[in-house]
Amino acid sequence: xxVEAPDLAARLxxxxxxxxxxxxxxxxxxxxxxxxxxxxxxxxxxxxxxLGIAPGDRVAIMVGNxxxxxxxxxxxxxxxxxxxxxxxxxxxxxxxxxxxxxxARVCVVLGAVASSVLDVADAIDALEHxxxxxxxxxxxxxxxxxxxxxxxxxxxTPVERNADDLAALVYTSGTTGAxxxxxxxxxxxxxxxxQSLSGRFRIETDDVVLLVLPLFxxxxxxxxxxxxxxxxxxxxxxxxxxxxxxxxxxxxxGITVILGAPPMYIAWLNTPGVHERDLGSVRIAASGxxxxxxxxxxxxxxxxxxxxxxxxxxxxxxxxxxxxxxAEAPRRxxxxxxxxxxxxxxxxxxxxxxxxxxxxxxxxxxxNIFQGYFGLDEATRSARTDDGWLRTGDIGxxxxxxxxxxxxxxxxxxxxxxxNVYPREVxxxxxxxxxxxxxxxxxxxxxxxxxxxxAFVVPEAGRELSEDDIAVYCxxxxxxxxCPETIEIVEALPHTATGKIKRAELRAS
Length: 509
Prior knowledge:
This protein is of the alpha/beta class. Helices cover 29% and strands 25% of the residues. Strand 25 (450-459), helix 14 and strand 26 form a beta-alpha-beta unit. The termini are far apart. 49% of the residues are buried.
């Protein structure tokens, strides 16, 4: 794919012109063609203009995986606005922070969570209109229902936008502090769509893609929705992940591409009867957002005949950085090679390149790298060098062939008696235990060693596992200072909507 493709907002119109009769969205019992989706996006753009939205204004979208999200997203881009996708699971305080910080003038919100927006709307000067979706009643304070307003005859006036104009303000998960708005231009998002469509991850027009990861997250938004619209693929849009229900959809619709995260693949492996399911239509199964346990990769390939192509990315990169899909073959524990047009460096604390095999902070440079954090100059300077390198905060190693292996987050490093302990290394050791489904490791304060390792372990369904079992297992595989000082057997781990472990929550427990 060439980055010379149409402007980000024009990609839907271009695909609709070429593949108008092809189904764009399958949602519940609704099928929407690309021609119809294009018409709805134009109507949405006309509505936003009618409400006074001008190029550069922000439009917040707090809607789940539904056609309304897609219509509002492309309508806002078509009107020249900046999209602010908002997690539907946020608290009222978190929603208020994002709406106030972004300066959104309009918010399209899911009816079920509209109260979290309407409760704070009067206190946010910039927010002028709240529109509800997926509801029969219009709550007090809302302008109206999305479908009713969008279907009104508000003429759309085309606008000219530049590639360097802001397309999306995507707020980080906030697992290490208040969410920051990552500024991604139209060129940033378009470039990463095209980069992601390289190698084996080449979504074609006749593909059927499972979109169950939340569209408010940059991974599903740009690599999923954006890349599908770029090529004219059919999207099976699902509001909530259900292991059995999603397997039904794979068989029913002949899903060929899965965009997933580790918790999804783990849940499928633990679904009764999964080995009798027909997954033969799946040609691409991608995993990102968090580390994929090696035993999950092995089980899918060995028992289900599906190879999971693991990759790596982050919001600030729009998001994809590396993928096994651009390599000749996937390597266990590796997140693959850099996507086309991307440079990667691993550097030490002094900014010098490390030797092959040595750990260093991952630095990334390319046309998809964000412009900085909205209104946060100091945070931007900390994240971006003057010559365009993004300091990711992730620690990794590279082998002689350039494959990247993530070690851990720089901020998650545990220092025990002066020795560095990377949680991922300890987690990898524990995850090899046959009775372990998943685990997470954090650092906790210790009076003698400064910090100590604490492990939270989820047993496989139906298996009995004790703290002593894990302690003995670790001592046979890890240096003494890396072994968990305390171990807690738990039923589940707290995750973000995209599968990242909430380490801050575990530290506080």
